[in-house]
Structure formats: structure tokens, C-alpha cells
Amino acid sequence: MEKRVLFKWIFCLLGIALLFACSEDYEELTEVDDLIEIENIQIKNGILVFPNHKILKNVINGKEISYADYVSRFKSQQQMFEDVVVAESKQMDYLDTLSGESLEKALKHSTLYETALKEGLIKEVLYSDGTSSYDYNLAVPYYSSVINKDGFFAVQDTLYQITGNRVKMWIGADLEKIDVLAKSANSDISRNIFVFDYMKGQNFTFENSNSLSRISFPAPPSAIRKGVVQYLNRPGFDGIVPFDGRFIVAFVDQIGLALPNYTRDLYIQVVCQKKVNGTNSYGFYGCSFNLFFYVKTETDGVISDIINLGASGIGSNVYYTFYPSFSLLAEGKMQQVTDEPYAYILYAEFSTMAKINFVDVTDGMNKDVNAQGMFKMERSSIKNQFFYEIISEHSQWLDTVIE
């Protein structure tokens, strides 16, 4: 019975999206009183406390303006991350004005970046080509807009903490004693504390050997992390002065828990970046793009027609979650929790075009450079391996080494 309680609450946390459809900059978490309430949302001990999961989801997805305005008075990790992106952009622009010895001696990252990295608010990401970048240091970035510096938020009297590797939960928590959950590395059912460690891998067992699972998997589910990158610094690229940046399109399809439900990460990521002058590191840089996604699936032995989906956006690091059951592509990186039959992907093609506006340091003029990220994956049956092919020219595979 205790195990069933654990599973139920883990799914309640991880499945919100689907079930309902030290620097001074960081110390300013909030200037409001210790307990303020509006529309039943509270701030207690520097933590956002929600009356239910539906309102939590609405705030994260920006569907309720009144809620969003209130949360904007709270310093979330999303805001902290955006502050780092702005600071890094300014530092990259400054470094572009330097050369020679001045460039060699200059700091390559902003003070805010270094502080955030030291305090664990961001993490360095290393790639197979020897380059690096940075990202949220969160096991589930979906909650970045509602968690404080230490990763806490609450729904009624249930306290949650999202860290780089773990999702934690304390049912019936004392919000004045958050250190109890912060120090918990393992579940303690006697205290209603539950910890899911993402570093220990998936809790899925093929052939449905878990007696609690109601899902049938006729073939191993996908475990895909595939990305293609186009570097834009080649002489004469796109017929104009080269832009020292890159454009990345990546696809992730991974299954997690399978206990009676299963979790699935299934999303496309679009990234625009600019190289930090004098380094082999890249920072986020805004662009506009159009994404076209073509996919064919097999569910319970039934093969679908090719589904055509698309999206347009502006940003530097944008995610789109694919929902096979609804043939839907929705903005955001949301983990799905479901007991529906598993939809195997047989064919997928990703075709993305981007336009990056930048200042040419040689003449100070604003210019545009076009980029593409295109690849496809295909297999003849759900029991076969995928064949991958890059479609866009001047592109190569880019795989994460350490995240």
C-alpha cells in the first residue's frame, strides 16, 4: 500500500501538464511580506504555494493573467536564467569589440554567469564536437517559472523540490522546515517524504514484467537523443559575411516510469547560439524560425498516415512537445504521464529554417543570416533500429556528452 501511495504522488507531480489536458541578484527573491494571498496563491517562506495542481498548471502555461501577474512579483529560476542570458549577451557583444591581448585577458563570461554556475543554478553542457554551452540545472525544467532559488514550490501542504538530479516531495510538510526535504536524498515513507533520483536511470522493465504496470509494450520503447547542428562561421556561408554562431535542432524520445502509468519525454528543441569570442563556448542568441514536423506512428499494430505539424517562433532555446494521441505539437518541454497504448515512431522528419539578425562588427550594420536544421529518421518496423540521415547542407550531428 505504501508503494502505491508513492507512485500516485510521483505521477501527480510529474504528470501535471497532461493530467489537466550567492549573488545579490539572486537574493532578491521577493520583496513582499512573508504571507501574501491573492486568488488563493500564497508566498510563504519565499515559496509559492498553490491551492491545487490546476492553478499551478495555469500559472506555468500563462493561461491566467491575474495569476501570472502575481507570480511575476516572485523571483523564479526562470527569471534568474533569463537574467543570465541577458548578461551573457552583453558580455558577448563586449568581447566582439576586442582582439589580441585585450581579448585574451578579458573575462569570457559575465559575473552573473559565474555566480549562477557556482551556486548550481545553471550547468555546463558539453558536446561531442568539443564545444560547450549552459542550461537549467533542473531535473524537470518545466517548473522553472514557479520554483525559487533552491527549487521549492508547494501545492497546499505538499512541498516539492526540483534539483539537478532529483524530484522530491513531502506530503503534510511544515513549510518553515524546508531543510528537512532539502537534506533528504532517499525516500522515507514513514515521514511521507518521496525522492525520485533521475541519475539512477529509468524504472522501466521491458515485456511488462512489472506486476503493477497495465501497459503492453510489444517492442522496446525508444531511447533517442539526436541533434543536428549547422555552424554559420564558414567564409561565404549564405553569401554574406559569416556569423560566428550555430543553429541546432534536436529530438528526444525517452520513456521513464512504468508503474501503472508511464512517463515519456517526447519533444523537439530549437536552439540559436553565438560563439563567445576567444572561447569554444556558445551562448544563447535570439532568432526567428519555422519548424515543420512530419511523423508516422504505430499504436497497437495500427500504422498512422504521415502527420504534418508545424510551428513558428522567436527565441534562443525553444521546446515543442509532441502528443501522439492528439496529433498535437505544443510549445514547452512537458513530460507526459499516461496509461494509453504506447505510440511507436516509425518515421520522423524535422525541417527547420531560421533567420538570425546580427551586427556585423566590420561595418556596424545589422544583417541577417539564414540557417537550416533538417534530418530524418526511419525504420521498417517497431522492432528495427532507426536509420538517420541529415538533409540540410553544411550540417553535422551534435550529441551531448555531459549535461
Question: Would you write up a description of this structure?
Answer:
With 403 residues, this protein is α+β, with helices and mostly antiparallel strands. The protein folds into two domains: 1-201, no CATH class; 206-402, no CATH class. It contains nine helices and 24 strands. It has helices at residues 2-14, 16-19, 24-27, 53-61, 65-71, 77-95, 100-105, 111-118, 179-182, and strands spanning 35-38, 41-44, 47-50, 122-127, 132-136, 152-155, 158-162, 166-171, 193-197, 223-231, 245-258, 262-275, 282-284, 287-299, 302-303, 307-315, 317-323, 328-331, 336-338, 344-360, 365-378, 387-390, 395-397, 400-402. Strands 10, 11, 12, 13, 17, 18, 19 and 23 form an eight-stranded antiparallel sheet that branches. The protein has a seven-stranded mixed sheet with strand order 1-2-3-6-7-8-9. Strands 14, 15, 16, 20, 21 and 22 form a six-stranded antiparallel sheet that branches. Helix 4 (53-61) packs across helix 5 (65-71). The longest helix is centred in the N-terminal third of the chain and has 19 residues, at 77-95. The protein starts with a helix and ends with a strand. 37% of the residues are buried.
